[in-house]
Amino acid sequence: MAIVEVSITPLGTESPSVSQYVADCHKVLKSYPQIHSQLTPMGTILEGELSQILKAIEEMHEMPFRNNAKRVSTLIKIDDRRDRKGTMKGKIESVLSKME
Amino acid sequence: MAIVEVSITPLGTESPSVSQYVADCHKVLKSYPQIHSQLTPMGTILEGELSQILKAIEEMHEMPFRNNAKRVSTLIKIDDRRDRKGTMKGKIESVLSKME
Amino acid sequence: MAIVEVSITPLGTESPSVSQYVADCHKVLKSYPQIHSQLTPMGTILEGELSQILKAIEEMHEMPFRNNAKRVSTLIKIDDRRDRKGTMKGKIESVLSKME
Amino acid sequence: MAIVEVSITPLGTESPSVSQYVADCHKVLKSYPQIHSQLTPMGTILEGELSQILKAIEEMHEMPFRNNAKRVSTLIKIDDRRDRKGTMKGKIESVLSKME
């Protein structure tokens, strides 16, 4: 189980608004019910099996091209912990418990 | 107003758990009441005036060294939009409205 | 053809030096002769077919675990341009020509 | 002394070519002779005193707005090591020596 953040940004679109592209990328995740996802103001966080997540991201990265983007910049950050099961919920709780 | 994601990671700590370091970095934000912050499973998202956010991040980046880290890797992603006011809430809503 | 930067960082390794891990990750690239690579002080830049690069990165990301790391943080940045062929060399030359 | 990679990307620029913007960002570095810089196909790597580098990056990040960009996405990765002096050259040599 890995936790992966991804943000996909088309360049050279006429408008600086890219939310329609982001929404379309997100739709790809409907085909991956085993991947948990959380939308944040800066990207999407995915939790699941790493190779499946990378497969989903590769498909998400194609979406802006289908919507006529000519260049896409995609940032992926993998947090892969194997000494114990890492989850999005567990990571947040672990930090919060230490902030009291 | 900018929206900025930051994640601060100490390297060469004995344990792969870094939540105590993250919690301590977060405490710095108490001195910056004008900056809105949101903790995510992969980092912290900050909303506010860019130069003030960068000042806060520089201070957060120092925290692991005070806790004896010898090396710190910090990732910062700035989203700065000036044709209209961008907010964390507005960005999420804009994507969600296009996913229906 | 895409250009992709990757940096792979093991966490909780006791020593803050991670160059041995990086060197081992790099060895994976010997099995991918079609991918051009360039080592930088902050990561490795790869040029080639995107799905093959992602396959190589997935394999590189496994290396620190084989060397007993318990947690690995991997950052991937894809620059994928399809209106014309983008190359590492071409990108540098394009910037340099505009700096004169 | 820190080593910092930065990439500055304007969004909504009509053309997917952004090298002119990158070249203009780079010109800012002329005012910072103490910062060593290296242009890579994916960004610029800076070596120097951290707070000065962050000051330079803040100024670089303003450049695309002066050139009429409406939104700028800037990615900054700091590698700050304090148990010994880290340099761009030293990091590369350390990895290369372990690849033989």
Question: Helices and strands in order, then pairings?
Answer:
4 copies of one chain form a homotetramer.
Chain A: E1 2-11, H1 19-27, E2 36-40, E3 43-48, H2 50-66, E4 71-81, H3 88-97
Antiparallel strand pairs in A: 1-3, 1-4, 2-3
Helix pairs in contact in A: 1-2
Q: What's the quick description here?
A:
The structure is a homotetramer. Chain A is an alpha+beta fold and about 100 residues long.
What does this structure look like?
By secondary structure, chain A is an alpha+beta fold. The first copy, chain A, is 36% helix and 32% strand. Chain A has a four-stranded antiparallel sheet with strand order 2-3-1-4. In chain A, helix 1 packs across helix 2 (50-66). At the A-B interface, strand 1, helix 1, strand 2, strand 3 and strand 4 of A face strand 1, helix 1, strand 2, strand 3 and strand 4 of B.
